[in-house]
């Protein structure tokens, strides 16, 4: 019964959208000056429709001579954009646009069509490209307190919008690291580098720096401070007079993991 009532609606739907292929893309995306950006896009066409493999990305607003940023027909591309934009994957369903060497004047709106359309027909659905002068500040996280001899993981996270060219990480500390990335949707990706590190006592107060280099060169760093907690074992050694002018433990409670420190007490 239900199947019967659904069928006519399905046919009607096909008739309504059958004329044009549909493009799906986000309504906004951020790009970093000098880097690249990929605007994710895919197409759907009714099964009966013969699939055109043509994609034309229009710029809006634009003068007629800078109106087409990408077309499968290269002759249609405006000379100001030639060689700066390309499709990431050449399949009939994938219309993801990659713009290289992002410039300030790329702050515009863009929309794809199956063919070049008249400048007099502005699109109502488009993607706004925002151009940032510098990449987003990475998020650096590590345990608030570390203990000598303990291995810690320091994580540096950064977002990027150029899916096929992820940023690279550089640490000022030496240790094994693993990098992972995840798709946050709408063209935003997150990448993280996990550095495994075993701090030594004399590194207390020193700076951890993670530098993220985006494709094309834009670079940004985040810093944090190593904070080593004195633990019981450590202080027993100190209290035995191994080193002078070292903090002495004040044993206040058995349950406490960390003990109150009394500074400037001469140890002998
Ligand atoms: C389009 O191609 C890109 C690059 O290969 C890929 O990451 C993306 O998932 C594709 N999109 C779809 C909808 O298939
Ligand atoms: C990445 O972007 C998401 C969504 O916009 C945001 O919630 C998150 O805080 C960002 N992460 C970093 C490391 O900037
Ligand atoms: C990186 O570290 C974070 C936080 O400690 C953890 O959630 C994540 O699973 C780690 N990823 C890898 C690949 O080790
Ligand atoms: C490390 O420095 C912090 C802050 O200066 C201090 O509270 C802590 O006791 C120091 N740890 C060691 C092991 O000296
Ligand atoms: C150790 O701590 C206790 C409790 O805080 C305090 O009463 C005592 O005076 C401290 N001892 C020294 C040597 O500072």
Secondary structure: elements and pairs:
Elements: H1 2-17, E1 22-24, E2 28-32, E3 37-39, E4 42-44, E5 56-60, E6 68-71, E7 85-87, E8 97-99, E9 109-113, E10 127-132, E11 139-141, E12 146-147, E13 152-160, E14 168-171, E15 177-185, E16 188-197, E17 207-213, E18 219-225, E19 228-229, H2 232-239, E20 248-250, E21 260-262
Parallel strand pairs: 2-10, 12-19
Antiparallel strand pairs: 1-4, 3-8, 5-6, 5-9, 7-8, 9-10, 11-13, 13-16, 14-17, 15-16, 17-18, 20-21
Give a concise summary.
The chain is mostly beta strands and 268 residues long. It has helices at residues 2-17, 232-239; strands at residues 22-24, 28-32, 37-39, 42-44, 56-60, 68-71, 85-87, 97-99, 109-113, 127-132, 139-141, 146-147, 152-160, 168-171, 177-185, 188-197, 207-213, 219-225, 228-229, 248-250, 260-262.
Give a structural overview:
This protein has 268 residues and is mainly beta. The chain folds into 3 domains: 20-132, Immunoglobulin-like; 139-229, Sandwich (Immunoglobulin-like); 232-262, no CATH class. Helix content is 9%, strand content 37%. The chain has helices at residues 2-17, 232-239, and strands spanning 22-24, 28-32, 37-39, 42-44, 56-60, 68-71, 85-87, 97-99, 109-113, 127-132, 139-141, 146-147, 152-160, 168-171, 177-185, 188-197, 207-213, 219-225, 228-229, 248-250, 260-262. Strand 5 (56-60) and strand 6 form a beta hairpin. The N and C termini lie far apart (94 Å). The structure holds 2-acetamido-2-deoxy-beta-D-glucopyranose (NAG) (5 copies). One 2-acetamido-2-deoxy-beta-D-glucopyranose (NAG) binds next to strand 13 and strand 16.
